[in-house]
Amino acid sequence: MQFTNLFLTFFHFSILLLGGNLIGGVHGSTGHRHQKEKLYSKLFVFGDSYADTGNSRKTVAGSWKEPYGVTFPGKPSGRYSNGRVLTDYIAKHLGVKSPVAYRWMKYAGKSIRHGINFAYGGTGVFDTLITDPNMSTQIDFFNKLIDGSTFTKHDLQSSLVFVTLSGNDYGAYLAKGGTNQGLPSFIATVVEQLAKDLGRLHSLGAKKVAVTALAPLGCLPRSTSLNSFQQCNADENTAVNLHNLLVQQAVAKLNNETKDSTFVILDLYNSFTIVLDNKTNYPGSLKFESPLKPCCMGTSHPFSCGDVNEKGEKMYTVCADPKLTFFWDNVHPTQAGWNAVYNTLQATLFQQQVY
């Protein structure tokens, strides 16, 4: 399969099938921590649907439709899952409440003391095919809050910054006429911009920044549906590996420049692979039935989870037990899936003193 088709299969990474058109319990073991070991009291989040907890607009985002949120909190909450997402698990790891979504901040009251989530599903480091703010604009929002009345630079010294980048830039590039030949160069451009955004967060005062590597996008149901959810697309994952290699190099350079190991990579590629291969050598790991097949699937289109017809009748089915499936929809894990991924990330989080 050509790269054009490969990347278009996972774009819009988070805004799920609207009107038939493609638009893009934290119970894991967290180890025993003593209060004196707690380094971070706030969590600030930037990125896309793997981190979004309610910023995406209700008028366009599938995450605000039933059956999203059926496991937690029992109704749609803007999370692209049946329940909790990676942000919630990172917050649990830190021992803080999951930070309020930026767009609901004015209603949050004292809850903002736990931080703010600026992530919007479907976005990237550049403008994608949606109008929600890209990562640079999300950081602009953050910058305006560091004014002494909401947050101070001192607050950032006791905060973790969490950044997700999950592939939307590449889908937008190809949808706008980008070529296969130009894709490797564009990948380098995306990572270069990501590095600028990470550096800016450090310049604003961030003490520790955790950024995700790309997950194995060739293993997403949107790609594996082509072979009845039986096998990952190796060619697509090869392109992902180029992105991740460049991210590793960029983070190493940033850490060398800052001299304080500010930046750490959360390797979602490795984590997804371990879980999807059903390697249960991590606490709380589950063996998932048909791990590449999503729990929520459309009846008229395989990826129309949450769609209803003009009569309000459901155009999708949901599996009997989401705890037994890794993927919730065409690109996003279930709460159980994120729990399993988080379990594989804990060694990195503790090793890098992200607790």
TrEMBL record:
InterPro entries: GDSL (IPR001087), SGNH_hydro_sf (IPR036514), SGNH_plant_lipase-like (IPR035669)
Keyword vocabulary terms for this entry: Hydrolase, Lipid degradation, Lipid metabolism, Signal
Signal sequence, start to end: 1-28
A GO BP entry: lipid catabolic process
One protein family per Pfam: Lipase_GDSL
A GO molecular function held by the record: hydrolase activity, acting on ester bonds
Family membership: Belongs to the 'GDSL' lipolytic enzyme family.
Name listed for the protein in its UniProt record: GDSL esterase/lipase At5g03610-like
